[in-house]
Amino acid sequence: MDNRQVAEYLIQTMKEKGADMGECRVSSNVKTEVYYESGKISMVRSVLGASVGVKVLKDMKKGAIQINSAEKEALDKAVDDALAAAAFAKPDEAEGISDEVVTASFEKGPKVPDRDALYSAMRTFVDDVKRDYPKISFDSISTEHVASEVVYQNTNGVCLTNSNGVNGYGAMFMAVENGKSSSFNYFGETFTDFQQPLIERGLARTILSETERQIETRNLEGKFEGDILIPPNCLDVFLYYLQQNFLSDMVHIEGTSLWKDALNTVVAVPELTFACRPRDERLAANQPFTGDGYIAQNMNIIENGVLKNFTLSRYGAAKTGKARSANTGGYYVVEPGTKTKEELLASIPKGLLLNRFSGGSPGTNGDFTGVAKNSFLIENGKVTDAVSEVMVSGNLATMLKNITGISVETINDGNSILPWIKVSGIVISGK
Amino acid sequence: MTGNAVSETSGFSARVCKNGAYGFASSAVYTPESVAASVAAAAENAAFLDQREKLGKVPFAKVPSFREELRYTREDDVTQKQIIDYMNELDALVAKLCPKLKSRFTAARCLTMEKLLYTSDGVFAHTATPRSIIYVGLTAEGNDGAPVEIFEPFGTFGVFDEVFTNPVQYESLIAELYEQVMAKAGGVYAEPGRKQVILHPDLAGILAHEAVGHTVEADFVLSGSVGGPNLNKQVASELVTMVDFAHTALGQRCPVPVYVDDEGTPGTDAVLIENGILKEFMHNKESAAHFGHTPKGNARAFAYNDEPLIRMRNTCILPGKDKLADMIASIDDGYYFIKTGNGQADATGEFMFGVNFGYEIKKGKLGRPLKDTTIAGVAFDVLKTVDMLSDDLSWSCSGMCGKKQMIPVGMGGPAIRAFVNVGGR
Fold this sequence. Notes:
Structural class of chain B: alpha+beta
Helix content of chain A: 10-25%
Largest sheet of chain A: 9 strands, mixed
Largest sheet of chain B: 6 strands, mixed
Strand content of chain A: 35-45%
Number of helices of chain A: 9
Radius of gyration of chain A: 24 Å
Shape of chain B: globular
Oligomer: heterodimer
CATH architecture of the largest domain in chain A: 2-Layer Sandwich
Number of domains of chain B: 3
Shape of chain A: globular
Number of helices of chain B: 9
CATH topology of the largest domain in chain A: PmbA/TldD fold
C-alpha cells in the first residue's frame, strides 16, 4: 500500500472499530547523507523512514499511537491500541479533529537525491575551507537530501498530502592553532539545489572567519548594561524561545503566558514585524498543512509592534477558548529595517556582537541568562576582541521593547528569513 | 489529561566498512528482500566512498566472537491503563499537597530500547534497556506577579510498574518541591560574578557529563578539543576522580547499563580522571585504533537508523568524605545551587548550565532563595578549585544527550564545593 492507501485503510478501520472520530498521519522519507568526521569524509548513508500516527476519540476520550510499520496487521493493532488507550483516558471536551473538509495535494523541491552532487559539494567545501580558513578543524559536516511524503486524513473527510524534497548541509567546527582551540561553532542551511558552492552560501564565510579570530579571547571584569547586536542565526533562537514561552499551546493552556491577554496590544517597538510563514515561497522548507489537519497560512505574530496572533493548534484554541491560529509556528520571517548592519554596529559605544547564546531556556516570565558564545566585544562602534566566559541577561518581553535597530540586510537559510537586530539594556557580565 | 500516546519504532540497519570508508543503510520493513537490499545499499555506499576518497585503512584487528544474551526479560508489558491510573493518583496527590499553585503538570515517559546486534567478527548481542521517568512541574506566582517554576524528574532503569509502585512514595519529594517553588516565588536574582558555591549532585553530574565528558570523547579530541593536549596531565584537584561506568557502579546497576556497545565491544568502565589526572578518552573501534588505546564500549546508536557514535554511558564524579552540612557551613558568601535545567559544553571545556533553584549562603547559613540563573566556567579550571566533595552519590537518571542523535545517559556525583561564574543581574 502507498501512504494514501494506508491512510484510507486506517480511517476505514477506525470507523469499523467504533471510533467516534479519528485522524491519521502517514509519512515516509528517504534520506541520503554524506558525512564527514575525524578529518575525513567517512560515511555515506541511505535511510528509509516511515511513520504512522493514529489518533482516535471515543466519548471525547483520546487515544494516540505512533508506529513505523505499514503492514496491515500492525495498522489493525495500532487502531485497537489507540481505542484501548482512549477507553482509559479522561473525557476532554476540547478534543476533536479538523472540520475544514478539503482534499489538497502539495508538492515542492527535488524528489530524487543526487549522491554525486552531495559528495562533490562536501569535497569542494572541505577543500575550500582548508585553503581559505586553515585554522578551521571540523567536528562534523553533513550534506543531505531528504525526500518525504506526508498524508493526513480524518474521519470528517479531510485529505491532505505533501510531497517534498530538500537538500541541506550542516557543519560543526572550531579553530585550532598551536594546541589552542576556539569555542565550537556551527551553521547549516536548507536549499533546493547545489548550484552555489556551500562556502558562498549564507553566513558561511563570515562565521568561519570569525571563528578563526576566536582562538584568542578576552575576559571581562565586572558587569555593565549595554547594547547587543544579534545576527540572524542567533535571533532564530530567541524567536523560538518567544514562541515557546508566550505563543504556544502549553503556556496558554497552563495560563502562564505573559501575553495571554495581550492580543492587539503593543508588545514591541513599532519597527518590529515578525511572522511565521510556513508557506513562504522564498523558503526551501515548508509546511503547507498543520499537524492537526488544517491548511496552513502565513501569519504575522507581531505587526508593527502589536501582537496579532498566537500559535495555537485546534486543541490549544478549544482548551483556552481562543481562536485557532493560521499555523502552529516556525518558519520565522522578520521584516527588514532601514539601517545597514554596519550602521547599527557603528551606533554602539559599548556592547556585544552576540553570535551564539548558550543558556537554559528562559522561564515562563521570560527571564534569560546565558553565555555569549563565539561573540565579540563592540567598542566605539567597532568589533574588537572575541570574549570568553561572558554572560548576558535580560527578559524576552522587555527585549522586544528595547529594540533600537533592525538591519536592512536579511539572511534566508531556507528555514527563516531574518535580519540583524540591535537591542539595548542587556546586562553583560564577566568574571 | 492532555496527552495519552504510545510510540513504537522498529527497523534494522547495516553498516559496512571498506578500507576505512563506511556505508550505511536502513529500513523499517522486515522482509528478506528489504534486508538484502539494505545490506547491498550499505556495501554500495561504502564502495562509492572508497572509490572517491581512497582512505586505504587496514581493517580493525579481529576480536574473539562471543554471545551476550538478554539480561532483562519480561513476559507481560505494562498497560496504558496502569500508567494512566497511577498518573491520575499522582496528580491528585500533587493537587492536595500543593494548594497555592498557579498551574501544575505531571507526565510519564517510558522508553525501552531493545537491540539485536550481529557483527562480522561473530559477536551476537541481545540487549534491552527500559527506563521510566515521571516529570512533575509546579508553577506559582512570583511576588512580582510573574510566574516561577520548579521541575523535577523521578525514575530510573526499569518498566513503569517496577519503578513506580505507589504515588505516596513521592509524597515527601513533592512536598519539598512545593516548598521550593513557593520559596522561589519570593526569590532574588543571584549576583553575577565568580563565587564559591556548593553544587548539588545533580549539578555535579551534569558538570561531569557536559563540561568534561564531551571534551574527552575521542572524536571531539580529534577535532581539537581541550581534552587532547591534556592527556596524563593534572586537570582537576587531586580529590577528583571521574568515571564513565559501563553498567555497574559501586556495586549497583547504573541508570543506563551498557553491557555491549553497538560495535560489539564489551562494556567496561572508562576512568577518565583519576586523582585529578586525565587518564583516558572514550572511543569507538576506529578512534581506539587511531590512538592505540583499548575501546571500552562507548560506541552507541539510538534508533535503528542511527550509526554508532562515541557516547557517554553513566558518567560520574566519585564521592568524597565531607558532609553536606559542613560544606555549606564552610562558605562565607556564596550559593548552594540545587536544581538544573539544561547544560551545554564547548570544545574549550567552557560550559554553562541553567540553575532553576538554589539559595544564597551567607556566613555559613542558607539565605534567600534564588530566581533562575545560569552558571558557567571552564571545566578543568573549575575542577581544579574543587576542595570538598560530599560522601554520598546521587544519580540523575532522566538525561538525554543530544550529540547528533538523542540517547539516554546517566549522570551522577556527590555535592561538590568549587568556584564558578554566576550569571544574574
